[in-house]
Design a protein that fits this description.
about 200 residues; Rossmann fold; 4-stranded antiparallel beta sheet; about 25% strand; binds adenosine-5'-triphosphate; transport; nucleotide-binding; ABC_transporter-like_ATP-bd; ATP-binding
Length: about 200
């Protein structure tokens, strides 16, 4: 179980974006997170993945503090994959940075063999997104924060990405927080949904 308790965070001297947020995500659960643009969804996702330290509050994984070093068991998959890769590395190196996905896994995520020799700018945004998602599934990862990962994909590629992710998540009992604006998508993917509004979480239909 991933638990966030009383998370409060504001940027610089501004108002708090997150105000005393508590959240639980169980192993194997898919939880949808929506909210207006600027509500703080990515901020919360980055706190959960250890990229941002909250001003107040705590995070626990199965009752223990999260590790400060090494592979983080909560991986944030960002909306803009270009910002998550080294532009000077070929895709082969990018993909194999933390672990070595099999050829079958590459195929399930629709990653072409010919892409491996290319540089990130030689892939489309949607193609690079699939590389970044598969890269984030290293053994030892227990929870994923999927932050609007499919918003730049066409409907068929989007469905294929979620299917591949669902298969991996089911096989490994991964918990997934799906951040998005598409209510129909969240309803389809997630058993439970919450909404971020004025820095607080509300149950959502
Ligand atoms: N590094 C930063 N420095 C200062 N303010 C920031 C920073 N990152 C985000 N913010 C502000 O924090 C608020 C929440 O941003 P965040 O990206 O978490 O929202 P979001 O709900 O994910 O939005 P969107 O749906 O548009 O992606 C916004 O007002 C944003 O301008």
């Amino acid at each position: 179980m991933l638990e966030a308790c009383d998370i409060t965070l504001g940027y610089r001297r501004g108002e708090s974006v997150l105000r005393g947020i508590s959240l639980q995500l169980a192993a194997g659960e898919w939880l949808g997170l929506s909210g207006a643009s600027g509500a703080g969804k990515s901020t919360l996702g980055q706190v959960l993945a250890g990229h941002l330290a909250p001003r107040r509050g705590s995070l626990r994984l199965d009752g223990a503090a999260l590790p400060r070093r090494g592979l983080h068991p909560v991986q944030w998959l960002p909306q803009v994959p270009e910002l998550a890769v080294n532009p000077r590395w070929r895709i082969d190196r990018v993909l194999n940075e933390a672990w070595s996905p099999s050829a079958a896994q590459r195929r399930r995520f629709g990653i072409g063999d010919a892409w491996l020799e290319r540089y990130p700018h030689e892939l489309s945004g949607g193609e690079l997104q699939r590389v970044v998602v598969l890269r984030g599934l290293a053994p030892g990862v227990r929870y994923l924060i999927a932050d609007e990962i499919s918003s730049m994909l066409d409907a068929i590629t989007q469905a294929a990405l979620w299917q591949a992710l669902r298969e991996e998540a089911e096989a490994r009992n991964l918990g997934v927080l799906v951040i998005g604006h598409d209510a129909a998508l969240l309803q389809r993917l997630c058993q439970r949904r919450v909404r971020l509004e004025r820095g607080q979480l509300l149950a959502s239909s």
